Amino acid sequence: MLNIDPSLIILITGANGTIGCDLVYHFSKTNKVLAFYRTDNSFSENFKSKNVTWIKQDLRNIIECKIVPDVIIHGVVTHPFANKNSNLDYINSNIISLLNIIDYANEKKVSHFIYLSSVKIYGDINIEILNDNNVFKNPDLLGATKILSEVLFKNQNFKFLCLRLPGVLCYENSPDERPWLNSVISKLKNDQDVIINNKDVFFNNIIDTIEIFKFIQYILKNDVPFNISFNFSASSPIRLEGLILGIKKYFNSKSNINFSKVPTNHFIISNEAFTNNFDYEVSTTQKIVKRYLKSIN
């Protein structure tokens, strides 16, 4: 495992969210972590580590934390699955909160800022391969606020990277209903029937928090390009039918799988901009799914 400088202080926002709590868990093994959160939950109440300082902070307000972090990983987001997802919630969480954490980063002279963006930024995707330079077409509120968010990073004093993520598999606090693949895994594990479209297409619309953690380790350890946005998805797409049948076999599931003949929109994600800028090999779709299944078996 690649270890970064243990003296770095890493601030993680949304620290008890589905992605945030995994990052807190991993980084706290070797680094001091400032864990910003707004509302208590079981993770923020029960996860104890001498390396973690929990700070209750509503990012809609000016940040008064006096501790100076070296790195910020910003994971706060309102999305369609959020408990509160009104138009105002999207603005407050995805824009106002980001503006406040950017101001804080500049004030504290933070060196690196990692922003967890989303492939939702592209909106309607009607092509077979999604590239980083694809046009933004009819994005929903999540996508629209992500577009504005990425624009806000221009001309800041710190180095930044915007990772456009697909569905993220999480470990410490994983909801059964998302991302799509996790909902299928949950049903197969519990012997529930599933309907699968597009069985013959290839699939890599997934990443996990372990891969996000490993990549952030890599960029903090190496001299790499900054101030760019890019897709960050599993490599080596695999045929969907084989993936689903493999998961069923792994659990010895009694689920019935209906491979529907009704076609739906589908795309694989190109990591072209990523591979052109970083000497880092993203784990394959198969490897990511395997380690996730092993964790929940």
Task: Give an account of the 3D structure.
- Helix 3 (87-107) links the parallel strand 4 (71-74) and strand 5 (112-118).
- It is built from nine helices and 15 strands.
- The longest helix has 21 residues, at 87-107.
- It has a single domain (9-171, 206-235, 269-283), classed as 3-Layer(aba) Sandwich (Rossmann fold), CATH 3.40.50.720.
- The model has no long low-confidence stretch (mean pLDDT 93).
- The protein has a seven-stranded parallel sheet, with helices on both faces. A two-stranded parallel sheet has the order 6-15.
- The protein is globular, with a radius of gyration of 19 Å.
- The chain is an alpha/beta fold.
Give the helix tally: 9
What is the assembly state of the chains in this entry? single chain
Largest sheet: 7 strands, parallel
Measured as a percent range, the helix fraction is 25-40%
Number of strands: 15
CATH architectural category: 3-Layer(aba) Sandwich
Structural class call reads alpha/beta
> Low-confidence parts lasting 5 or more residues at pLDDT below 50?
none
Main CATH class: Alpha Beta
Sequence of secondary-structure elements: EHEHEEHEEHEEHEEEHEEHEEHH
CATH-assigned homologous superfamily: NAD(P)-binding Rossmann-like Domain
